[in-house]
Amino acid sequence: MFLIYPDNFLIITLLSDFFMIKASRIINIYILTGAVLLFLFWFLIWHLDGLRSHFTFFPLWLGYILLIGGLTARRKGSSLLTRNFKSWCLLFIFSAPVWWIFEWLNKMAYYWTYLGVESFSDLEYNIFATISFSTVIPAVFSTSEWVETFHIGDNFTNGIKVGVHRSTRLLFFTTGWLMLLVFLLWPKYGAAFLWMSLYFIIDPLNYRLGFPSLLKMTSKGDWSAVIQLWIASLICGFLWEMWNYFAYPKWIYNVPFVDDWHIFEMPALGYLGYLPFSLELYAMYHLITGLLKIKPVSNFV
Predict the structure, then answer these.
(1) Residue 289: phi, psi to the nearest 5?
(2) How far are the Cα atoms of 186, 194, 197, 272, 280 from residue 179, in angstroms, in the given order?
(3) What is the pLDDT of residue 58?
């Protein structure tokens, strides 16, 4: 009965408008803060003399993540950044150890190396590197959600069904271990497997354990999440390589058989590695949150 009186309707309407205005202002703050950080530290990472990436990389990518999160919220009403700030922060926490896994695997092959790191002690390097690595998952996931607002994935919801049968998932799992073994034994010939093996191993495991899994989606013919992650990874990959090009310290590549034509420091064919890499990030993140019994972020693919 309380809600039928006109005065009460007016109060509710005014409160609703107030919170909508407040939310809009917060989104504008995220967009403005992100843009300022991005362009300021983009300039600094390219134009300062001497060592600078160790203190400019994180705020540069934080600016991008805030900006893309704000733009996403502007387009769809919410984003990873605005829906659950705690879960958004945990993306940074989980991102660093995930990327360290790839750093450790790379010690078998040295597909990429860092110039300028000799200027830091081991402790300094590990601290600065961990801070920088913390931006990888938030960047890819936030970009994926922004891509989702354009409904590109809607065209890929009725595709071929992969993962329906247990035998297919077992084949994925076995193939993943074989690819990882080839990479470890013959790294000269296994560059592609570094970016594929962990997905093939972990995603079927997530399916089995009841955690979010891309195979669960593709088993229904829904490839929208895969497409969105692929596009997001190419966007982030291009920005990683572009901002790295004039930075210092920086990374360079030595990838067997494809180390010819480059786009920035990355061999052109190397950009294909970002596609399965994005799927690995999805699988590894959901394995971690599932094992820790932490509610994962959602609605970003």
Answers:
(1) -65, -35
(2) 10, 8, 5, 17, 14
(3) 98
pTM: 0.92
Instruction: Identify the three-state secondary structure at position 151.
Output: coil
Q: Is 43 helix (H, G, I), strand (E, B) or coil?
A: helix
> What are the beta bridge partners of residue 112?
253
Round to whole Å and give the CA distance between 103 and 113: 10
- At 145-160, the pLDDT tens digits run 999 999 999 999 999 9
The Cα–Cα gap between 117 and 120 comes to 6
Look up tokens 């899994």; give the residue: 213
Query: pLDDT of 104-130, one tens digit each?
Result: 999 999 999 999 999 999 999 999 999
Query: CA 155 → CA 19, 148, 160, 227, distances in Å?
Result: 35, 12, 13, 10
**Distances in whole angstroms, Cα of residue 268 to Cα of each of 7, 234, 258, 260:** 65, 12, 8, 8
Tokens of 3: 């809600």
